[in-house]
Amino acid sequence: MTEAFVTPEVVKWARQRRELSREAAAQRINVTPARLDSWESGTARPTFRQARTLAQKFNVPFGYLFLSSPPAQVITLPDLRTVANRPLTSASPELFDVLQDVLRKQEWYRDYQQSEGAEGLPFVARYSLTDDPRQIAADICATLSIGGDLRRRATSWDNFLRLLIRQTEGAGILVLRSGIVGNNTHRTLSVDEFRGFALSDELAPLVFINAQDGKAAQIFTFAHEIAHLWLGQSGISNLDYRRPSWQQEHDVDRLCDQVAAEMLLPSKEFLARWRDDRDIQENLEDLARQYRVSEFVVLRTAYENGKIGGRDYRDQLEARKGRTRGEAGQGGDFYRTLLSRNSSVLTLAVLAAAAEGRATYREASQLLNVKMATLPEIHRRLLEMGAGNA
Question: What residue spans in the chain does CATH classification 1.10.260.40 cover?
Fold first, then answer.
């Protein structure tokens, strides 16, 4: 059998990148630990079939195995993530790969917009870190038509999020929502590592929401990342929306946190609707239901507006531990899920470009993370559905 002249250091890097022991990695690719060790030391080489299996199981491009040294993998946008008030210094393969995938999509869409003669969107970077969060929130809500009518139309948290995304994409912002890398259901994204990120760009502004989170939490992440665009600040964060805004670690996150809260539950409306003659739980449930936010957001708003004290706030937080997960999941119709993972605007632009010969079908399939042979059927089904109603 033909040997693959892989680079031993890269084979070792590919295994360690997945945080696998030699024993676990060898079991995954169906060889003995001694055989894998010989590939990592350079005393033996895998066959091409074994090398392809290794690349597939370790989730690295096959060509990487032949590089002269392991590739540098650096997050190229501001990393605002923290754990226990300390900055994170590394990213999982899933986070890194989803970032690379989304950056590739954004670059393609930016070029597409330029070819269409599109003009820059005026709201990107409209405000600075010194501006009033209430003014920023009001401008976002006016631009995206977010208000009481939209909430009344929503039949559930999930439906409200879909309506928010539809309004936002209509304004020219790409919104991607996924809980996995590409279309690989075996590579899930960790909410503990990040909730979402924003990529500021006048022609192709983009937000990504980690769909492994609960629906109410995704709504807050959406609002937070949209605020990043109005400030012209790209970034990735693992914001804890249960903490008061002044406890967020970064200036950008503190302001975006305030803007998001004001977008979803305006303080003026909150104060008018909070009833001092009812107990805390009744108020939390009622306002969470009306405004399609989590009880955590209402609780924090009540604390920041002086409706409850520090002890009640802490007691209520403690009582809600463990309620921040478990609502996620993107099962259901494949075509709607495809639009959600890739943005309906981007998906239709890619398919149109392929149909017109402005992009190859191979390029389109790679951008959308689907098989090339399925593209015509996907295009047909999406046109039948009407992507704007997905």
Answer: 8-66
Number of Cβ atoms within 10 Å of the Cβ of 70: 17
Looking at the DSSP bridge assignments, the partners of residue 167 are: none
Q: Which residues, at least 6 apart from 133, have a Cβ–Cβ distance to it below 8 Å?
A: 255, 258, 259, 262
The pLDDT score that the predictor gives to residue 20 is: 83
Contact 154, 219 (CB under 8 A): no
Q: For residues 343-355, give the mean pLDDT.
A: 93
Who has greater pLDDT, 125 or 79? 125
CA 6 from centroid of its chain's CA atoms? 34
Here the tokens at position 317 are 């937080």
**How confident is the model at residue 48, as a pLDDT?**
85
Chosen CATH of 8-66 out of 3.30.470.20, 3.40.50.10320, 1.10.287.3510, 1.10.260.40: 1.10.260.40
pLDDT number for residue 389:
54
Using one digit for the tens of pLDDT, what is the confidence trace for 140-165?
A: 999 999 988 898 898 888 999 999 99
Say if CB 191 and CB 212 are below 8 A apart: yes
H/E element, 210: strand 206-210
Q: Which of 3-17, 101-115, 369-383 has the highest mean pLDDT?
A: 101-115
Residue with tokens 């402005």: 358
Q: In 3-state terms, what secondary structure has residue 102?
A: helix
Burial 153-171 (b: 16+ CB within 10 A, else e): ebeebbebbbbbbbbbbee
> In which region does residue 293 sit, left (phi positive, over 0), alpha (psi from -120 to 50) or beta (all else)?
beta
Q: Please enumerate in sequence order all residues whose Cβ is within 8 A of that of 381, keeping only pairs 6 or more positions apart, or say none.
A: 335
